[in-house]
Amino acid sequence: IDFDLILAKVKELNLLAGEGIAGIQLRPGGAQLRQPEALPLTLYQDGMVMRDQPFRPYRDPAAQQCLQDIIDGYFPSELQHCYPDGI
């Protein structure tokens, strides 16, 4: 696993998703700045955890697909059901 490559790609995706840029959320009587929702990704020597999902070893096909999506410059396809309109 090339952790440096994965971290670099995650940083690129974070910028695309608007990291550091607040949005405006309308509320009754005004508006409030809103930061984009974080999607935690923790990489271990032998596996990974994304969001509130259980630990997945890197030999797990779903973990491999997730990392390949990131390396290819895409948001993980497994997030499509949670974010059908995109990030």
TrEMBL record:
<comment type="function">
    <text>May be involved in the reorganization of actin cytoskeleton mediated by RND1, RND2 and RND3. Promotes RHOA activation mediated by GNA12 and GNA13.</text>
</comment>
<feature type="domain" description="SEP">
    <location>
        <begin position="36"/>
        <end position="87"/>
    </location>
</feature>
<dbReference type="GO" id="GO:0043130">
    <property type="term" value="F:ubiquitin binding"/>
</dbReference>
<dbReference type="InterPro" id="IPR036241">
    <property type="entry name" value="NSFL1C_SEP_dom_sf"/>
</dbReference>
<dbReference type="GO" id="GO:0005856">
    <property type="term" value="C:cytoskeleton"/>
</dbReference>
<dbReference type="Pfam" id="PF08059">
    <property type="entry name" value="SEP"/>
</dbReference>
<keyword id="KW-0206">Cytoskeleton</keyword>
<dbReference type="InterPro" id="IPR012989">
    <property type="entry name" value="SEP_domain"/>
</dbReference>
<dbReference type="GO" id="GO:0043161">
    <property type="term" value="P:proteasome-mediated ubiquitin-dependent protein catabolic process"/>
</dbReference>
<keyword id="KW-0963">Cytoplasm</keyword>
<keyword id="KW-0175">Coiled coil</keyword>
<comment type="subunit">
    <text>Interacts with GNA12, GNA13, RND1, RND2 and RND3.</text>
</comment>
<protein>
    <recommendedName>
        <fullName>UBX domain-containing protein 11</fullName>
    </recommendedName>
</protein>
